[in-house]
Specification:
It contains 11 helices and 12 strands. It is of the alpha+beta class and 482 residues long. It folds into 3 domains: 171 residues, no CATH class; 194 residues, no CATH class; 41 residues. It has a 6-stranded mixed sheet, sandwiched between helices. The chain has a 4-stranded antiparallel sheet with strand order 4-3-7-10, with no helix packed on it. A two-stranded antiparallel ribbon has the order 11-12. A hairpin with a 7-residue loop joins β8 and β9.
Length: 482
């Protein structure tokens, strides 16, 4: 039988041995963990440059990406960690196939093209400017390569690849899905499409944009922008609050049709003008428009509180504010018009149709809810004041915050040039035409929509002489109403 001292010594020995085994295991894992962490280090910002050019029976895709976005790949190195540029070809082809070719899908007339052939691949210095044009980039990728005379590390160079896809005809319509979002935390892709016999079309998108039609048909562009306009009005809180202010005092589709239509016509005018570069391009212009949109919400809410609003006056005011909201819509469309192809006007009109459909959906939902609210929860006038006050409070805070941002932009009068004068004359002509249209509609509105005559219940036959009084139809000189 062992003594207690021997038992204690044996347990201590086993504990020390276990600690040594754990320490050795952890030391063995250190290089593996360090290597894994290094291999999976995802870069923050990655910029991809690409050219797509169909020619004959093949389509060329030129791509430039930072080499540090190519993870989990071992590149041959020389002493002190410099890349062995003379032995890079196999590694570059492998990583180009895994990280680029498998991530990009190209379609010819909605038929996906097979996997591409890697024609050439190489590394380049970040100072190289050959990707400024397709011809320069093609000559660079197929030209002489860097040699070991250049001492660079793996995270100091760019990867340039030339892919070749077989196609049936360079007159086909092509689409691309650049699924390169996994290359970094934020990936910006600048792509230029060179159709045969057409102008270069530039695209720029962040992350994964989905399927991008490089040469869309008119109905494809129209469908895309109808969806965009529909969801934009549903996502735009300020536009929804403005629409809510329009609905509160009327709650009738018949009365709201001219009001909403004037808003749609007005924002369509400024949206189309902005798309054709007729809007000011000063830095202070977008925050000014955002501030004016908030002011429009506050004004409409206060007008609801004051009361006494007629449909004729409301549609005229809405028309003026619609011109402002149209500029706000244009800011959201600036990065999207690149997907319109050659159908710019069709896309703009389709966007407006989508906005109109979104507005109709909101009206269909809001009008019954307001009817129920005013019937069972609170009196109509009290409810109108409460809801409008809440909207005015929100719009007021937006107006103050956006006004503070606007004040940060120094205002400077633009230089008077021939181009500025021509633009001012165009806008003056547009405003005069709009003012004339508004005046004509306002003048002939009562003729088209006559006022309703008083009902039989509100008439009293007293005498024959009639005097019109506000709000009570016709009165006789003796005080009776007919």
């Amino acid at each position: 039988m062992k003594s207690p001292a021997l038992k204690s010594s044996s347990a201590a020995s086993r504990g020390a041995a276990a600690q040594l085994w754990v320490a050795a295991f952890l030391l063995a894992l250190v290089p593996v963990l360090a290597r894994g962490a290094f291999a999976h280090d995802i870069p923050n910002d990655v910029t991809v440059q690409a050219f797509v050019k169909p020619a004959g029976d093949k389509l060329n895709l030129l791509v430039r990406v930072p080499l540090n976005a190519m993870r989990d790949t071992e590149f041959p190195e020389r002493t002190q960690g410099y890349l062995d540029l003379d032995r890079m070809d196999a590694s570059l082809r492998e990583t180009s196939s895994v990280w680029i070719a498998e991530a990009i899908e190209i379609y010819e007339d909605d038929t996906r093209l097979p996997n591409p052939k890697i024609v050439d691949v190489r590394v380049s210095l970040p100072s190289d400017k050959s990707f400024a044009s397709y011809d320069e980039a093609f000559a660079h990728v197929t030209g002489p390569r860097l040699t070991n005379n250049v001492q660079v590390y793996w995270n100091q160079v760019m990867l340039d690849v030339l892919f070749e896809y077989p196609i049936h005809s360079d007159q086909s319509r092509f689409s691309i899905h650049p699924g390169l979002a996994r290359l970094g935390l934020q990936v910006i892709t600048a792509l230029r499409f060179l159709p045969r016999g057409g102008a270069v079309r530039a695209f720029e998108f962040v992350g994964d944009p989905g399927l991008v039609r490089l040469d869309p048909r008119w109905h494809q562009a129209a469908l895309r922008f109808v969806k965009l306009g529909f969801f934009h009005i549903l996502d735009g809180t300020d536009h929804l609050l403005f629409l809510f202010c329009l609905v509160i005092p009327f709650r009738s589709l018949r009365k709201l049709i001219p009001v909403v239509t004037s808003f749609t016509v007005a924002h369509s005018i400024t949206l189309i003008a902005s798309a054709y570069n007729l809007a000011p391009d000063f830095l202070w212009f977008p925050p000014l428009i955002e501030t004016l949109i908030a002011m429009s919400i506050v004004y409409m809410a206060l007008e609801n509180i004051v009361g006494g609003i007629g449909v004729q006056r409301r549609w005229m005011i809405t028309f003026g504010f619609g011109l402002v909201h149209g500029f706000g819509f244009s800011f959201a469309l600036r990065q999207t018009l690149q997907f319109a192809g050659s159908h710019l006007l069709t896309s703009l009109l389709s966007f407006n149709i989508g906005v109109e459909l979104g507005q109709l959906l909101v009206l269909v939902l809001l009008i019954p809810l307001l009817h129920v609210f005013f019937r069972f929860a609170v009196a109509e006038r009290t409810g109108t004041i409460i809801l409008s006050a809440l909207v005015a409070h929100t719009g007021w805070h937006w107006m103050i915050d956006r006004g503070e941002r606007l004040r940060q932009f120094p205002f400077a009068w633009p230089l008077v040039t021939a181009a500025l004068l021509a633009s001012a004359m165009r806008w003056l002509m547009v405003m005069l035409i709009l003012a004339g249209l508004v005046w004509c509609v306002a003048k002939y509105w009562p003729l088209k929509f006559p006022m309703r005559q008083p009902s039989r219940r509100s008439r009293r036959d007293i005498g024959s002489t009639q005097v019109q009084t506000p709000g009570h139809g016709f009165e006789t000189e003796t005080g009776g109403e007919i």
